[in-house]
Every structure is written in C-alpha cells, then in structure tokens.
C-alpha cells in the first residue's frame, strides 16, 4: 500500500477492531498490529480483540502522513533519491509545456526539470 489512507472513511466516535481497520483501509492485519506497537492507542491492551477508537486512528494516520511531508521553498525540488528538498545545479534547469490545462482559469501546465545538486539525478517540479 502506498500509505495514502482515506481518513474520511473513519468515524471518530466508533471503535474499530484490527480486522475492521484492515478492511476499511485495505491493508494487512499485521500492519495494524505493528502500528499498535509504534504508537497507535488501543482501548484495553489486554482485551481481545484489540479495539481502537476512530479519533485515535485518524490522529495516528495524520501524524504519520505529516512526518513524511517535505515543505519546498522557492526554486526547490523534491529529490526522490536524496528524499529531501534540494536545489538544481545552476544552468541545468529547463521549462517545458506539458500540453495540459489546469485550474479554473485553464492555465497551461509546465514542468521544470533540472539536476540535483547532491546526487546529480534528474528532478522535476510541476508549475
């Protein structure tokens, strides 16, 4: 799974078993058990089946998503090799039109490409 869970499906005032969480999010039950070991709060750790409140599950997934998010500054790209925000090597940047229209104003989409200043791999940014 990609880690993009639809948290809108989770009811905050509902308790979920591990099986229900795995069905709801389309993941393996082992992932849910692993989450309980790394910080997902359960109602009673000694009870079977383990129950998790919906608001705790939603909060856990939102924190997990926020931890992986990288803010980009001006003229920065995200390098998939370095896994961080980087700038392009000067002179390597190019802007190309993709041919697609975006937004309510039907603006033309552009893609900026360049080379990472650390690993020298290709980096892209949609504008």
Pick out its properties.
single chain, 127 residues, alpha+beta, Arc Repressor Mutant, subunit A, 28% strand, elongated
Strand elements, count: 7
> What's the level 1 CATH class of the largest domain?
Mainly Alpha
The H-and-E topology, N to C, reads as EHHEHEEEEE
CATH architecture of the largest domain: Orthogonal Bundle
Characterize the quaternary organization of these chains.
Answer: single chain
Total of domains: 2
Radius of gyration: 21 Å
* Named CATH topology of the largest domain: Arc Repressor Mutant, subunit A
As laid out across the biggest beta sheet, the strand order is 5-6-7
Helix content: 25-40%
Largest sheet, in brief, is: 3 strands, antiparallel
> Which structural category do the helix and sheet elements fall into?
alpha+beta
Coarse morphology: elongated
N- to C-terminal distance:
28 Å
Low-confidence stretches: none
């Amino acid at each position: 799974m990609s880690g993009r869970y639809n948290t809108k499906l989770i009811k905050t005032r509902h308790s979920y078993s591990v099986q229900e969480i795995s069905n709801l999010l389309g993941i393996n039950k082992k992932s849910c058990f692993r989450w309980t070991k790394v910080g997902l709060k359960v109602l009673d750790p000694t009870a079977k089946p383990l129950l998790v409140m919906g608001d705790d599950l939603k909060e856990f997934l939102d924190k997990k998503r926020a931890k992986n998010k990288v803010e980009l500054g001006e003229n920065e790209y995200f390098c998939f090799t370095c896994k961080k925000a980087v700038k392009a090597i000067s002179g390597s940047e190019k802007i190309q039109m993709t041919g697609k229209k975006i937004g309510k104003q039907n603006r033309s989409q552009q893609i900026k490409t360049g080379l990472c200043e650390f690993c020298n791999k290709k980096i892209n940014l949609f504008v």
